[in-house]
Each structure stands twice: as C-alpha cells, then as structure tokens.
Amino acid sequence: MVLKKILKRIVSFVLCFIMTMPLLPPMEVNAADSLRGESIYQIMVDRFYDGDKTNNATGEAFRYAENSEEDYRYMHGGDWQGIIDKISYIREMGYTAIWISPVSDPQLWGIPDSSGKQWPTAYHGYNVFDPNRANRYFGSKDPQASKDKLKELVNICHENGIKVIFDVVPNHVGDYLQGIGSNAHYTNGTGLKEGTQLQPAAPFNNVSWYHNKGDINFNIEHPHTSTSTQMLEDHDLGGLDDIDFDNKDAKGAMFDSIKNWFTYTGADGARVDAAKCMKPSDIHELQEYLGVVTFGENFDMHVEFIKDWVGDNAETGMLDFPLFQAIVNDFAYGKNFNNTSEISLQSILAQDYLYGTHLNDMVTFIDNHDRNRFLTEAGGDVDKLHNALTFIFTARGTPVVFQGTEQNRGNANGQGINGIADTWNRWSMVTKDQNGNVIKDYFNTSTNTYKLIRTLNDLREKYEALSFGTQREMWTSMHTYAFSRRMDSGKNAGQELICAFHNSKGTDTETMSIRAESSIKAGTTLVNVMNPNDKITVSQDKKVTITLTGDTSKIYVADENAGDTIPVTIHIRNTSTDWGQNVYILGNCAELGNWDPSKAAGPAACPNYPEWILTVYIPAGQKIEFKAIKKNAAGNVIWQSGDNRSFTVPASGAGTVNIDW
C-alpha cells in the first residue's frame, strides 16, 4: 500500500515536468484491503460539481440559489461527471479514497406532511426509490448509461490511485407508507408534485417487507436498554420505511441490490448508513456478502454502546462519534483536555481498548454532512480548524474530511444549527444565483487549509507510524495533550512520532517523559516536521520539554540530519537564589534556547546548594556560547553578568564545564 502511494506521487511529478514521457500504466486498487492507512474525502455528490447539465432534475425539484434554509432541500446539479472533472483537485490534496453519496435512484418528492406540504427528498440519496437503479440525477436518465457512468467514475478514481467508498442504505427506503401495523398502506393521493412516486419500485413495494411500527422515539433512547435498542431496530428513522430483516425475502432483495453495485463497478468499500438501527450481526452478514471493508454510522457518543458494532463479528470499523464530540469540545470550544467527567480527548481515548484490534479501523472526523461545520463551532477560528485537522491525521484511526473544509468556510450565511444539521452545512462547492450564474467557485487550491491537508497526507504517507502505530498518551493537562505513535513491529519497527496539541491562546511549556516502550535515546535531537527550525533534545533522564503557544500543534520525530550528540554537564557554582527561582542555561543553539529565555535548557538540579548542575546533549564538535539565568514561575529573568561563556563540545565521550555566577 505504501509503495502504491509512492508510485502515485512519482506519476504526478513525471507528468508535470516531463510531458513528453509516455503515461505510466493505471495504478490498481485492491478492494479487499482494509482502509487503514487511507485518508478519505467525503463528497455529497449533489453539492460538489455539475459536470453534466443534461441529467439535472427539472421543474420545482431543482434550484440554483442557496439563500434560504428551504433552498438547501432542493437538488442543485452535482453529479458523478463532476467528480471525474475535479479528480485532480482531490488527488493533489493527497487523499487516497473518496466516500460518495448513495448511488441508488432516489425518491424525488416526499408524501405530503400533516399540513399538506410536499418537500423534495432526492438530493442526498438516503430516501431511496429504486435500490436496483443507478441515480438518474447523478448519472443519466437512461438506467444503463447511469450505471456505466458510475463504473467510469470508479475506474478513473482507481487510475488515480483513489479508492471509492459507496454510502449504502440497507436499513430503509424512502418515506411512502402511511399508518402503522395492519393499517399501513400506500397513498393514492392526487394533486401531488410532478414526479412524485407513491411507492418504491418493485419488489420493494411489498407492505409486508416493513416493520410498520411508526417512528423511533429518540426521547427514550437513553439509557440504552434491550427495549430501546429494539426500538431502534424495528421503528422508522424519521419516517423512512424500515426494512424487516427477519423477512428473508426483504433482506435478501436489499442485500442483493447493494451487492450488485460492487460487482458491477468494483468499488472498494461501504459506509453503512443508519447502522445504529440494525443488528451488528446483520451488518456483518452484509459486509461478508459484499466482500469489501465497511464502516458504519452509529450516531451515539457512548463508546460502550457503539463498540458492539465493531469487530470480527460486526463491522470492520465505525464512524467515531464519541471522539468527534471530544474534538469539538476540546479544539473548537477550548475545554479541558483531561476532564474525565465530560467528553474529552482523555476520557474518550482512555476507552480505546474496547475496540480491540480494530482501533485503527475507526473513522475519525471533525464534522460531516449531518453536523455543523467545525469552523462554525469554532467561531470562524482557522487556527482551531488546523489544530483539529492535524489531530485526526496524526491520531489513531482513518481520517475523513467533508468536502469544502479545505476552503476555510463554515456553515453558509454563518448560520449555526442545533440538532442534526442538514441545511446550511451542505453548501455547494460552486455558489450560483437563482439563474445559475456563478457567484463563487470553492475549488481554490491555494488556501492554507488545502495546503495543510496536502502536507498532512504527505506525512501519513512518509511515516507508517501515523497510520498503523500504537498510540500512547504522554501528557495531559488543561490545555496541552500529547501522545506518541510508534511502530512496535514490522519493517519500520521503532519509528516513532511525538504529537503535542494546545487549545488556548496563551503559552504553556510542559516537560514530559518519553514512554517506557520507546526506543528514543537520551540525547536524541527531535525535529518538528511542521517547522524544521524547531528542535528539541531528549534529556539525560529521557524527558522532552515542549512549548506551545495558541491553538497549535507540533509533531516531533528523530532528526535524520542530526549528527552525534554529546552530554555536556555544566556546573554553575556559587549561585544563590530566592524562593521560587530556578537556574537555567541559555545559549546560541537550539538545545540552549537560541537566547530565548522561555526556551532555556533546564531547570538545573541542585544537589549541593549553592551549586547547580545541568546536563544538556549538544551536537559533537559544536562551539557554543552561553550564560546562566535565574527564572521564577512568573517568567522574570536575571541574567548572569559579564561576557558570554564559551565551550567547544568534544567529538566523543562527554564534556564538563565549570562556571561561577
């Protein structure tokens, strides 16, 4: 998998600079592989890009404008050709997989509500009309041509080294049935919107195939009990007609319809909609039948509950909603990282053991089509957005990012939505006026977030530990959280990165121990891969000191360009201090803070007052200039008087320096 990703970069480079070279053969993508090591771009097809205007819905079901909340309920024209047209935009961000909207033909209009109003239901694809027909608005009005367009999309993605994940909807079809129990029936209403389908396509128009028990009452879902879980499984999700999986014909027809899409197109994986409303064993059966990796949607913030949908007898992975909520709390709202009484990074990650060997199969995210955009939750603070993105690209699991995040835009019109957000967050990547004239194109490849995502994807490609390594917590405090990712076995055994995050506008300096499992040695120089000028050195007692300012993060790895380091022990004699003061060494190299008192080496130990002792690892042969300083907790500094002291670090062994205050 790593080799395939490297080949992808090589191909891109060659095509850019040596246009006369022949094209390399298309890269193959193995659909049976796990999604571990991938990064996923989530595409809501109708809101991505209109590559073929001939398949657009007509009449009242279609709108260009996105001025009101109601506008977002209508179809806007995005399609599979649009993804093909913009494949380079996705590829150049470094993504290795896309997750696209459901592919089956949708219900165009809902049945009238209690007030007689009909709402359009087609654009997102979750209200299904015909599970066996490809979406006519994403492909073509001709059923076979539509199937072929979907297959073309998958083929072109594969040629670009990108896997394709279909959003599949086994739990339900659209909202057609009225009444419950023996009174359940299809309407014979008249005077309805043009194109209204009164019942799903055959054979799914069999009333006995559905539970017909009415809607789920989410007010009694918690605490989770066998009764509430049963309600989730056999009641309708927001009116959508719930398939009865105890009916073998119904279950078989639904599973066959989904299987056929993978057989025909060769798609690589499935995101299972509304997994919470199905038994884990049923979803596992579907996964085995499809022969591809799946991850499901269980809209719940309790690890103890969603773990039952993850594992060898369930799904490969799940969308990590508990971690999502912790990310919003800690990175968007700046809450306490180590608050164990609420949903925080520490409280959620402490339960990782419940996922067993499927930990890296959990799919992590900062927002999606059902939630407010992260930037809206963060009050428009792009630094917070970057911090959260860096977290999901470095933490355990497989990251997925919702389309448009890279454009630094939150919900449209700045509108926050409580509950399930399904309007303002689903803006189109090309904004148009009511006549279809382009107002703004959101395919800018120069934004700082587009570039950040490309960098983060490059890091995951370069460092296997960021995709497959064991994650171990190193430090947690109110505003600082740090962990290591380490390969404990395999070809890159010992590869390790230290990732540190900060979630306030102030500055914090934390000294933390290298994990006992680590093979990083004392004296090792670590470099921040996001800023090569930022280097730290592992102390003699195997600790590192990291300073973080603002909503920011740092990712440290052993500096491959650093030479040998030598332990230099500095004795600072005759140094009296006041209560609360400590002694540090400040100098002209990174190991001594580059004359920045906030980054000085220390504090020194004081085994025999007033003599202080500090050992610092410094590159062999380097000539250093330095001074001692006294510093208290408030940051007040007193400098040693006189000229700078100097010392040349020996080429081997150890060095000793004696100075007087």
Automatic annotation (TrEMBL):
Q: Which UniProt keywords apply?
A: Calcium, Carbohydrate metabolism, Glycosidase, Hydrolase, Metal-binding, Signal
| Cofactor (UniProt) | Ca(2+)
Identification of the protein by name: Alpha-amylase
The residues forming the signal peptide are: 1-31
Please, one GO biological process term?
A: carbohydrate metabolic process
**Keyword tRNA-binding carried by entry:** no
- What positions does the domain CBM20 occupy? 560-661
Is the keyword Iron assigned to this protein? no
